[in-house]
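Why does residue order matter? Because the sequence determines the fold. Keep that principle in mind as you read this record.
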Amino acid sequence: MDAGLKQKTISGIIWSFAQRFGVMLITFCANIVLARLLSPDDFGCIGMLMIFILIANTFIDGGFGSALIQKKQPTQDDYSTIFYWNLFISVILYVILLYLSPLIAKFYDIPLLSPVLRTQGLVLILNSFSVIQQNRLRKQLQFKKLAIINLISASASLLITIYLAYIGYGVWALVAQQLMISLFNAVLFWIIGKWWPSFVFSLRSFKELFSFGGFLLLSNLINTFCNNIQGLLIGKYFSPYTMGLYSQAKKLEEVASTSISCIVDQVSYPVLSEVQDDKEKLQKVLKGLTTSIAFFSFPIMLLLIVIAKPLIVLLYSERWVECVPYFQILCIAGLAISLQNINYYAVAAIGKSKSLFNWTLVKRITSIILIVAGFCINGIYGLLCGMVIASYSIYLINSALASKYIGYTLRAQLRDLLPVISVSILSLLIPVAISFLLPSGLLNLTLASLTYITTYLCLSKIFIKSKIAMLKEIIGSIIKRNNRHE
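Structure:
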């Protein structure tokens, strides 16, 4: 990686880190408050509807955002064309949700879901106003602006949400949260992004971008549906209470499994696209990003499995303790989930969207079979185990595609990951003993966590020095930047 690209990557990671962990911290703290103000049933109602909102949102971005980033020199006509397309399709999708909402409520046999979905569906139109601005800033690696916007939106919307929950609005407080985030994002991206569409819709631009983005759209739609089918099954065959437990367990697991990878993914796709014509450099970038994600994500996921019960009781109170086993099983899947996207984006960066779509069909059909089979065999626990197996199969297929098109073989990737896996597991020995010897509580949680972190860092310094060197480089860059601004 040359010096200029390296600096851009580090800078992007720093600001993505600030954005992701800033938003995560704000959301995490607010979620702790909301879990004590609202019931599992309130969270369950929102969880049942998320699959419909997420699928509709996928249509809006539709792969065109990725196509704009992948294209080396997108024009104003390109951006304007996709902006108007996003706005048009969002209105169409909202109208569809208006008509489907009574049927969806009937499907779940919960009448309240109809007005909730009709209101929550407005996020589709609000989101369409900010998609292009977000992708332009990502294309330009302007992650500082992205961080500022997202942090402001998260803070303002969550303050409103907590207030509404406190005065008794229940599930409507969670609906307001989604609407406020989208509204604040739309306003701030227009003000800070400083981009305005031209009055033009170019069929040539649309066709060119669709040739790449169309396959990504189909891939993303399939991914979104399959990633949320478990919520559809739980919502249909279990109570909102059970759905609420699952939603909170999944939300907490995603903090660990996707936070680090999302930071790297946000930076990696434009960076990988920038070196798409240099296969050797592409391999080096992919290797560095993969091992770095594992270095941070693996120990977090394993530690969370050990401290799950005291953590959830401390954060959410005793009434959420039934979601502990859900959370532990999801954390096992999270190990694979944290590494799925980096291989996917590497293949997308070189324009292999058709191949990604074809293999997405294979991955997701397999995932649906595993999840449904698990559900039929052993209810919700079988479903969760099916999710674990599906997660690892998706990672292996994405890695095989990276091996085929980029040359970073699955064997080489597993060899690079083995030291991190070994150190992460060895570091668990003392925390596991602490969890058995001490009663569940704050002391157990604190001692197990501190012991694990200390042991992991010490063993890492001995066995995986390169990851420590990268961590020092990132921290050093942050300190230098802070010194320059003082």
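The CA atoms of residues 431 and 450 lie 9 Å apart.
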